[in-house]
Amino acid sequence: MLDDILDYVENIRDRPVWQPIPDGVRAHFRDDVPTTPSDLASVHDEFMRYVLPFATGNSHPGFMGWVHGGGNVPGMLAEMLAAGLNANLGGRDHAPIEVERQIVHWVRELFGFPKTATGLFVTGTSMANLLGVLVARTGALGVEVRSEGVAAGEKRLTAYVSAAAHGCIAQAMDLSGLGTAALRVIATNSCHQIDLHALACTIAHDRRDGFTPFVVIGTAGTVDIGAIDDLAALAEVARREKLWFHIDGAFGALAILAPDLAPRLAGIERADSIALDFHKWAQVPYDAGFLLVRDGTLHRDTFAAPAAYLRRETRGLAAGSPWPCDFGPDLSRGFRALKTWFTLKVHGTDAIGDVVSRTCQLARYLESRIVATPELELLAPVQLNIVCFRYRAEDTDQVNARIVVDLQESGIVAPSTTKIGGRLAIRAAIVNHRTDARDVDALVDATVAFGNARVLNRAA
Asked: Which of 4, 64, 298, 358 is the most buried (most CB within 10 A)?
């Protein structure tokens, strides 16, 4: 099994990026629950035949569809070690929790947070953003909100985010009990950043109407084009208006590792909380989301739930308080920290920062190829590692949607789509450390070829 998966990674270029699941393969997963044992080798053979060939493909250098990292071998092997230990990182006093605490310490250093800041591994930034909103809610309403609920108080809280923010922010407002109607979606400027004047006006209007603004959420790497809000200016707005300042840095926050990009994150060190994913630009295998909170006491007050079966001691296995379960809702927690720890220690942050820089350089190379190709049109400025473009044609949205499916089904490259200014765009997100210029060239050449074929077919 180990040899096969190492061969898969080593020879990933010999495979299609993605391929559709045949009906026969899909039907294989409709069998009844097994009641008798099967030989391990035969089950692994099923995996090799029915699962491995039909994966998402984000380990492949031609995968550019969404902001997915490519993984790395030390992280993969660390997953095997973590599974062997079978450690529950909800609590108690054992070395795996010290590994997670060390990464919390490292992340504090990276973002200039104080030693009193706390952090937690979660599934991904969607969950980290939810937890960040919950901490901000506790800060605004007090710990009493945990027992009395948001409806018990008189304050009507409002939150602020740009129109380019990820949809999980609205979901966080929903799940926190504040409601999506309490989220103010602010227009963006020409650089796809939150419009600061519109933000200030909206906050002032809400205060006049009796609302209580409580959090402003900046984005470091928007989902559509990779724009970074003016974080320093947002930090100043938060200070002036006495708001919690949270940053959704799903992938963009790790630009802090790249010296040429880190200055664009100026102000991130002033955030009250940051959400990010190690499984994106840091190439850690899925999943490895993370939340960092400046006020560790408030973070703990938001989630800690004493119970007799969670009694803490000063000695023995029940020592080591506070436990990770005091900083989030999960008592059962996997050892996500180990694959992150291996990745950071084996490769080092300098090498990971080089990967971050190189993906952005490849995006600029793709931009130059698009500008030099008459059949193609750039639809948004390239700010980090995401490029949005399209093939020029009549019925352009329909044609480009079909081109993307053609590209995916070809197995050559796998971009995705988005809407820019109401127009459908081919979206290439370059995240994988294995991607290089030949993959960019393959995307451009195949897009033109499929586009030309579509136009010729329509003409015929």
From this structure: 64
What 3-state class would DSSP assign to 215?
strand
Residue 161 · residue 219 · CB < 8 Å: yes
> What ranges make up the beta strands (E) of 176-334?
183-186, 212-219, 244-248, 273-277, 289-293
CB 261 within 8 A of CB 354: no
Contact 226, 254 (CB under 8 A): no
DSSP letter assigned to residue 14 = G
pLDDT over 70 at 460, yes or no: no
**DSSP classification of residue 41:** H
pLDDT, tens digit (0-9, with 9 covering 90-100), for 282-339: 999 999 999 999 999 999 999 999 888 889 999 999 999 999 999 999 999 999 999 9
How many residues would you count in the chain?
Answer: 460
Written as six digits, the tokens of 144 are 């009493």
| 254 vs 356: CA distance, rounded Å | 8
- Residue-wise pLDDT tens digits, 387-405: 999 999 999 999 999 999 9
Cα separation of 449 and 403, whole Å? 9
